[in-house]
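Sanity check

After download, print the first record. It should look like this:
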Amino acid sequence: MTAAWMLAAAVAALCPSGAAAAAGSDDGPARGEGPPSFLYLSGELDDLSPGGGGGSGGVLWTRGLSRRFTAEAGGFAHSLDGTRWAYARLGGTMAASDAAIVHLEANLGGGTRTGSGIPYRTFRGGLTLELAPRRLWADLDSQYIRFAESNGNILKLGGIVAPRPSLSLRAAYYVSTGGNLGARYLATRADLQHRRLGLFAGLSLGRSRPELFNFFSSSTTVNSTQLYGGARVPARRHEITAYVDSVDSGGVRRTGLAVVLKLRL
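Expected structure tokens:
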């Protein structure tokens, strides 16, 4: 289990956003090559009901510096119903041992909402621990978020099970431990590889502030439901991912259609 392979789990975090949905395929080096480098190019169109719309785009570069360490850097920009924000990302994933993967990540930026500036800062640390070889992993995470009026820390307690090599199932419980996020929700995801086609789908249910799902339907904690699904297809050395993402939060629905290009450098 290498750091480059486990970066797929690291970037597929809370919900599919940008390059996250492209994670899950084999990122190991080709025969005769060193640690691989990848460039993720993402774009998404969003519709709010009721409300307006918007979109987002991003670029994420990952570089395997060794078989145990992968660095990442990128930038992302969002515009949704009059709110605009952008941020830069720096991070790294390290295989601390044959069974333990550590991921650290920082996102720093800001934007505007109704003519006023808003901050955007997140700091995340995660640990993936293999409990049964190629079958079962514990997936733990702590993340600090400061976005507009929302701030606080979220803990993730989760697990990944692979009943067979072509199928993986993930489940995690998220709970906020400080600030005003009020997050308590369950997230699930399934990934299926059928020959050259990869399929994935996920569902999350619970309560949180809408900023955690990238929109501003309410300034308080509300019930939220997220459902997404998509597919990955190879294109020679590269990969194309497309997915649909739907979030209902506080009576407002955001529906997004996204495409991610994963280029092997």
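If your output differs, re-run the checksum step. Summary of this record's structure: The CA atoms of residues 99 and 133 lie 8 Å apart.
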